């Protein structure tokens, strides 16, 4: 991959300039730093472009990696600066010799693959981010307009603008509603189109990184003369001094005071380190933010930094904490003011709040220009414990952040501090159980219970073990003597038996007292049944009540030999006496009543749990103007 495609001499120091790719144009001399530009068929010439001589970035010329199964090597970069921030366009040469860009900055990574022809779209008509349009027939949203104010170079870099290299390009980032992302970079009439493939640091499998110790950028507060070190420079362009001074990077590269903050105190010490979600962070900034609603609510926000993963934020309100990071791939909801909810990756996110905010107190360093006077507009959509936040801090940028609830105790362990306890239900505090999961668990438990019931109730074939016909041999109306059956076996570990009685009663009744007696232990199980049937004719209508048979189930009889003891009685005043009663005993019968009883007991837990979840969710939405609940004030 490292084949030399051109050897030249530096215009300033005569050092050798070795181009690896035939498609690259920029080359910064490794000796003196002079930046050269190579035209087609012409030797490189010196250009008045600043070289990047020192860097704390992990990626460097010579870094290798893999993307979509193909190896690549980093050749160099052009770093574009904007009014608020910067971005690195690293030139990477794939194993097949093709070059493309790896965009990187603030912990966001994406491969940019050039395609042509560029979409036929008039970019000059766009005035602000969030506008909707169509790109190649696909509904799209303009998420950012980035106008470069300058650039620097390092190593060997690819230039897509040719003769217009010395102009400052404008980058338009579009999110298509089908989930694709494209960037259109333009200089005058030249438009370069790129497919944007977002990826993570881990996915790139980068090696040969810059592992040198970070050299902080040193500045001096022009209010208190305090010496300050910025560990995330050049991405950090704002600093709040402990004296209250607001320092922001000016166009000449100097940090100058622009107003002052009041005193504030961070619950976690600046410079503290801790591991969150497997990432080792340094806490570099702390701010108090206030919204512009009628409540003027304030919350605290902590800026975290990792050299590879970039920035993350910890937000705390009333003791509840949220961990969030900016995302390049996000739901496309910009400039949709009426939207109240959306589905993303099979989760429904509902609008919780809409507000503007600004920083009212701060200390430490912050990415970009953080201390603007204007309010940053924000919308928050929640699906506890997750949240999508959309922020617009200018007319040219819409940013998306994925937030997640994080337990206070985990932060205390990570940073070795004591933090304020929760004062109320947080908007992302996880529910005891998700309602859908509750329904699923209940359904599965009911199926398991049904399966156990069917298996236990039918461990064998339903079998008749006793069938007897008893009658009265003596005078009508007297109680029959005690009748004892022959013995029979119940073989199962636990047996369910059904005892049924039939008698041809007519406007009368028959009673039967039974005892199932274990012939080996003498243990008896008593049971009484009554059979009664009455009928007549009254007010022109026939009526009847009762039945000529009755049955009951006895459950849980242990295995053994049994006999049935029976004593019958009947209505002595009946006009028609019963002369015979039929008694039947079956084993291995299903006992549905037990199933329904257990099912009822089983449902107590999900019902109580659902009420708990409902009450907690109602408390969660109490502070929202978009609550689906009503409250008694």
Automatic annotation (TrEMBL):
Where would I find the DUF4178 domain in this sequence? Answer: 269-407
- Ranges that cross the membrane: 438-456, 595-615
Taxonomically, which superkingdom? Bacteria
InterPro entries, per database record? DUF4178 (IPR025235)
Q: Name one Pfam family in it.
A: DUF4178
List UniProt keywords, sorted A-Z: Membrane, Transmembrane, Transmembrane helix
Name of the featured protein: DUF4178 domain-containing protein
| Species of the source | Filimonas zeae
Q: In the record, what lineage is assigned to the organism producing the protein?
A: Bacteria, Pseudomonadati, Bacteroidota, Chitinophagia, Chitinophagales
